[in-house]
Amino acid sequence: MTFLQIVLIYLAGVAAGFMNVIAGGGSMVTLPLLMWIGIPPPVANATNRLGVLFESAIGMKTFHSSGIRLQKSIVPAIVFSTIGSVIGSMFVSSIPKDLLERVIALMLLAVAVLVLLKPGKPNISKPSQLLTALIFLGVGFYGGFLQAGVGFFLIGAITLTYGYDLVKTNFAKVVIVFVYTVFALVVFLSKGMIYWVPGLVLAAGNVIGAYFAVKLSIRKGSGFVRWILLTIVILNAVKYLFF
């Protein structure tokens, strides 16, 4: 890698770490960059998980140090997301890329609608335990398979199931992502799909972005996070639908 490529990867990591912790979609910045420097798409997809792992770890630590706590009821979401992630990381999809992107866009817009319903006071019925398991299995599967945009879907799933405010929702999200990413990385490592140098440079940037995202979300509160989240969700949905 050239010095310029290292700098660009690091800066992309900072942006992605901030986006992923406060909302989602950071991998939509880092994946194209990793492929642009010549990393094959499947390897870029796997290498990107190093940054996701480190940003989730620093996010968890910073949320916890700031006094944010989660209930034990989140454990089933962690378990089912992890199971789905392992399956997704081993799965080879036959869905055409254009169709998949449009499906993702529609799901992102659905998340935006859910956020507008104001997390913590959902206007829809809480799903059954079976439906909850299926929801987190599905989100985990997507996270293991692609990762890009999974934060949006986790926010929707956590909001629907637990009714947390957006600060606590983001904490739950980074905990879930950290756990299932550990298992997904084991799968990718077993297949020799990790490029360590760009992955660690990316991770260094992700950590910085994630740290400041946590501090900002706690200081500004759920109302501020909601508008940031909506902005990022809608921009990503438009990208998938029209570009």
TrEMBL record:
<comment type="similarity">
    <text>Belongs to the 4-toluene sulfonate uptake permease (TSUP) (TC 2.A.102) family.</text>
</comment>
<feature type="transmembrane region" description="Helical">
    <location>
        <begin position="129"/>
        <end position="158"/>
    </location>
</feature>
<keyword id="KW-0812">Transmembrane</keyword>
<feature type="transmembrane region" description="Helical">
    <location>
        <begin position="224"/>
        <end position="242"/>
    </location>
</feature>
<dbReference type="GO" id="GO:0005886">
    <property type="term" value="C:plasma membrane"/>
</dbReference>
<keyword id="KW-1003">Cell membrane</keyword>
<dbReference type="InterPro" id="IPR052017">
    <property type="entry name" value="TSUP"/>
</dbReference>
<feature type="transmembrane region" description="Helical">
    <location>
        <begin position="170"/>
        <end position="189"/>
    </location>
</feature>
<keyword id="KW-0813">Transport</keyword>
<feature type="transmembrane region" description="Helical">
    <location>
        <begin position="7"/>
        <end position="39"/>
    </location>
</feature>
<dbReference type="InterPro" id="IPR002781">
    <property type="entry name" value="TM_pro_TauE-like"/>
</dbReference>
<protein>
    <recommendedName>
        <fullName>Probable membrane transporter protein</fullName>
    </recommendedName>
</protein>
<feature type="transmembrane region" description="Helical">
    <location>
        <begin position="195"/>
        <end position="212"/>
    </location>
</feature>
<keyword id="KW-0472">Membrane</keyword>
<dbReference type="Pfam" id="PF01925">
    <property type="entry name" value="TauE"/>
</dbReference>
<keyword id="KW-1133">Transmembrane helix</keyword>
<feature type="transmembrane region" description="Helical">
    <location>
        <begin position="73"/>
        <end position="92"/>
    </location>
</feature>
<feature type="transmembrane region" description="Helical">
    <location>
        <begin position="99"/>
        <end position="117"/>
    </location>
</feature>
